[in-house]
Design brief:
- This protein is α+β, with helices and mostly antiparallel strands and about 280 residues long.
- It folds into 2 domains: about 140 residues, Diaminopimelate Epimerase, Chain A, domain 1 (Roll), CATH 3.10.310.10; about 110 residues, Diaminopimelate Epimerase, Chain A, domain 1.
- It contains 4 helices and 19 strands.
- It has a 17-stranded mixed β-sheet that branches. Strands 9-10 form a two-stranded antiparallel sheet.
Length: about 280
Amino acid sequence: MTATADVPFRKMHGLGNDFVVLDARSRPLDLTLERRRTIADRRRGVGCDQLIVLEPPTDRQADVFMRIYNPDGGEAGACGNATRCVAHVLMSERQADAIVVQTISGLLDSEKTGTGANGLPIVSVDMGPALLDWRDIPVNEACDTLHLPVALGPVSDPVGTSMGNPHATFFVDDLDAIPVTQLGPQLETHALFPERANIGFAQIVGENRIRLKVWERSAGLTLACGSGACATLVAAARRGLTARKAAVIVDGGMLDIEWQRDGHVLMTGGVAQSFAGTLDPSLLV
């Protein structure tokens, strides 16, 4: 990729969790750390919660390799909402109802499951197994992941879960009373988390209904976090707060999450493309 290259992009979102999607399947893109940061910047670039790059798969079972970058330019292991967006792109291209997305965390089976009342396609993704061992999350010391030794201000006793990336979920009585933007940055970088962590704040609001806000590492507070919704459902089921299937309500809408008996977590929700364009050469210098 050079400063004069025409680089098309899609701006997509899953419940407001938004992405810039670049296609590097037919030609490689030289996305330096600074270029990734600039594209993701909401003032200097296109702006997004994550930058997504489509690449040729390295696994014969996969249809595409999805690389995920956080706004700070660092690489992430999983993003459920982005997976649904990418799956929709591939299924539309191939006129197919199911495809397999490869990530650095594994293969994700995806399928179109219908159309929402707003006309948006509904996509379901198998996010793979929830990992519950302290070494898998990871945390820095052997501990019970159902009760991580972390506390700050009004929150304590989170549940640790890996959905291809680390999550700590705090259950609270009143989500609106929690200063998420104050606590999130401090908890993300807590000494227990060697790779930092996504921090969820969850409130049980009804039978098998959970309200959730997630402070995502590097991205901050987002309208929706797919892997966070999966981690929260697993955490709630482990605590006996919900069944293994529940609606998770985020600021951007609702995701249906199911923790299957084989350990895999299914996430279902709508996807949308906001617009498409070409990156200005000034973003690529």
